[in-house]
């Protein structure tokens, strides 16, 4: 009976699950931020390319 009570009071598994959930949440946030950042950078470089003169493109000899 003492072993059952000791097992029920054990919290190591719950702590590991909590850390896993926190790590998963952080990963989701990082993916979201990088996705938005990538989209913004793509738009910004697209605007820069649109303003460059077309004669700046390299020519083949």
Evaluate the radius of gyration: 27 Å
Number of helices: 2
The helix fraction, in percent, is: over 70%
In percent terms, what proportion of residues is strand? under 5%
User: N-to-C terminal Cα separation, in Å?
Assistant: 87 Å
- Helix and strand content put the structural class at mainly alpha
Count the beta strands. Answer: 0
Mean pLDDT score, rounded?
A: 84
- What is the H-and-E element order? HH
Q: Characterize the biggest β-sheet.
A: none
If you had to describe this structure to a student in words, what would you say it looks like?
- It is a single chain.
- The chain is mostly helical.
- The protein is built from 2 helices and no strands.
- It has helices spanning 2-9, 12-51.
- The mean pLDDT is 84.
Key features of this structure:
rod-shaped, mainly alpha, single chain
Tell me the layout of helices and strands:
Layout (H helix, E strand, L loop, with lengths): L1 H8 L2 H40 L10
Short description:
With 61 residues, the chain is mostly helical. Helices cover 79% and strands 0% of the residues.
